[in-house]
Design a protein that fits this description.
The chain is α+β, with helices and mostly antiparallel strands. Helix content is 33%, strand content 24%. The protein has a domain of 101 residues: Pathogenesis-related Protein p14a, CATH 3.40.33. The longest helix is centred in the middle third of the chain and has 17 residues. 40% of the residues are buried. Keywords: Signal.
Length: 168
């Protein structure tokens, strides 16, 4: 069996994500589509929150950027979205309740001047999610913003949500 690895990014300026069966492609304004297939593992690789945070901050520091701080409110927003995607079995920036990342961040009590969301669907763990996000210009751009200070990063099964924020 083959598992499709998918990712999407939403900067509040708007990126569109399309999810199809089999060959899953990313459709974004101005970006080429991305398609990647790998054999599915027997089990989904679970990554500890600490290891996920280390992967994100190591990636940023290797590019001369300051590490981000895990924010409990953004963590809550990320967890809500990952749980929703796992429950519905679909990856989308719009939650099943119609919410977007800004809505979820506000509901969690995070007051922001900027917020962005990267999504990935991969059973291979944080290294795979980071690799996919790095290969996509809009995902990479979101992670490279030097003005960001906070993050929340959640995995529920194969669904990953990274919420990045700059407080007001």
């Amino acid at each position: 069996m083959r598992a499709a690895l998918v990712l999407c990014s939403l900067l509040l300026t708007g990126a569109a994500c399309a999810d199809t069966r089999g060959d899953v492609r990313l459709a974004q304004s101005g970006d080429a589509s991305i398609s990647e297939l790998r054999p599915a593992p027997d089990r989904i690789t679970q990554t500890s929150p600490k290891a996920a945070a280390q992967a994100l901050n190591s990636w940023r520091q290797a590019r001369g950027l300051s590490p981000l701080h895990r924010n409990p409110r953004l963590q809550q927003a990320a967890e809500v979205q990952s749980r929703d995607m796992a429950r519905t079995g679909r990856m989308a920036h719009q939650g099943s309740d119609g919410s977007r990342v800004g809505d979820r961040a506000k509901r969690a009590g995070y007051t922001y001047s900027h917020v962005a969301e990267n999504l990935a669907m991969t059973p291979f763990g944080i290294d795979s999610a980071m690799e996919l996000w790095e290969k996509s210009p809009s995902h990479r751009q979101a992670m490279l913003r030097p003005d960001l200070r906070d993050f929340g990063l959640a995995q529920v099964g194969q669904y990953w949500t990274l919420v990045l924020g700059k407080p007001r």
